[in-house]
Amino acid sequence: MTFAYLLHLATMLGINMILALSLQLTMGITGLVNLGHIAFFAIGSYTSALLTLHGMPFTGAMFVSALLAGLAGLLLGVFTQRIKADYLALATLAFSYLVHALLLNTHSFTNGPLGLANITKPIIFGFQVGANWAFLIFTTVIAVSVYLILMRLIDSPLGMALQATRDNELALRVLGKSTLKLKILAFVCSGCLAGVAGSLYAHFVTFIDPASFTIMQLIPIVCLVVLGGLGSLNGTIVATFVLILISESLRFLSLPSSLTGPLTQMIYASLLFLVLIKKPQGFFGKVSLK
Amino acid sequence: MLKIKNLSKHFGGLRAIKSCSFDLKPNSITALIGPNGSGKSTIFNLISGALQADAGQILLDSQNITRFSPEDISNAGISRLFQESKLFTSLTVQENLLLALDNQDTKFWKNLFGKNQVTLDQTNRINYILKLLEMPEKAHQKASNLSYGQQRLVAIARAVLNPHQLLMLDEPLSGVNLQLRNQISKLLLKLKKQSATILLIEHDMSFALRLADQIIVLDAGEVIAIGSPKQIQSDPRVIKAYLGNELC
């Protein structure tokens, strides 16, 4: 196990943490079963990669990535405003497939299934974040900021209203609160943060293709949110550490590489299955998945 | 204050409400009574916007609120208690009540960068009503940890704190023990003294007759009688609706 591998692992852990925390905002805090989250991540990744490949500085590209992913959240929130529970899950899943299909089929723009290569390492205010340790520090700063922003929101009256939307939407509406605005706001914020995670991902791995943004990539993130506990940011962080470390430890079992990927997916799926049956509120959660 | 004009609602082939009309006078308590399935809660759902009427009008101080959303109806001045408590179970009692107090508190940037402190006025109002309901020590308890009766009290407190001209209470006494009934009665009598306008659904007839200034009787989705408690008690149509043809 090399130091470079540990740095890589820690950075991926940070990016996954941002993605899981942003999903926690819609799914755990607001109670919206959002399977379109991977599309926000994809939009953030492709926007940042394409803009920097066309000469835009990284900071600007990351900002635009967050904005576009937030805009996608706004559109998804508006179009799904009347859809609830299982149907919302299906509608957001369809959104994931739509974005995936666009990435695959707009060759002139996204290079289709061949993906985008040679994505540059970020330069922030003249400082090249090329080395893995520098990228880790940058990712950690953003992950901590995302955590603090979400903590702040949850503890505010707005956070209370978001949680109340999850607990009982009609009861909140008869108190004069527009749950439609609250749900759209959750989608927008969640989209922005996933866009930031996507931008970090693209510039860390330096190659992205549509296969990195399928429902199979979303399942581990949903696992982090559900296992950690719906509504619990700390639970999400603990689950991210534990699950990523469990899946990474498989690398040291001397298994054929063709087995490692499917085995990881099976572990995630089995854990999700077990938790939903035995402990539906997750390990640190406040509410059960409806 | 509130005028209901020819209100109708169908559920498939079932006519739940048939051309109902009645008025509520300000500073009075009106009880909506009737046998099970007579359409009382449906009328509440129509007035509060939880359901949309098929025909008819709902006017609040001459403003047509028939097609308003539940949040717009609340902001127009109608506060409602549901038959089930519908508390925000993951929040504390205080948080449940805070959500009823202020409609301007969910702006994103204000919440991200503002102070977000509970004001002294908000604390005082919450403490006052919790004290009145004899549960001041429950303020920081999670709503899900309260007993059914205590949840009912918090739901009533939340409806009372929500700024309103008209308070609609759907069976406030249902499923609570004698001690809690007394506490709720005490609160409602206090509201009556303060000249509140209340529309009430209540199965406890003696309570409804004691509290209300006006009684509206529904049967099979139709208004069959409107009058003072004394008039209603001796109305043959009401007796027939409650006891049936044979016993009459």
Describe the protein in words.
The complex is a heterodimer of chains A (290) and B (248). With 290 residues, chain A is mostly helical. Chain A is built from twelve helices and two strands, in the order H-H-H-H-H-E-E-H-H-H-H-H-H-H. Chain A has a two-stranded antiparallel ribbon with strand order 1-2. In chain A, a hairpin with a 2-residue loop joins strand 1 and strand 2. In chain A, helix 1 packs antiparallel against helix 9 (179-205), helix 2 (37-53) packs antiparallel against helix 3 and helix 7 (157-167) packs across helix 9. With 248 residues, chain B is an alpha/beta fold. Chain B has a single domain (2-247), classed as P-loop containing nucleotide triphosphate hydrolases (Rossmann fold, 3-Layer(aba) Sandwich). In chain B, strands 6-7-8-3-9-10 form a six-stranded mixed beta sheet, sandwiched between helices. A four-stranded antiparallel beta sheet of chain B has the order 2-1-4-5, covered by helices on one side. The longest helix of chain B is centred in the C-terminal third of the chain and has 16 residues, at 178-193. Chains A and B meet through helix 6, helix 7, helix 8 and helix 9 of A and helix 2, helix 3 and helix 4 of B.
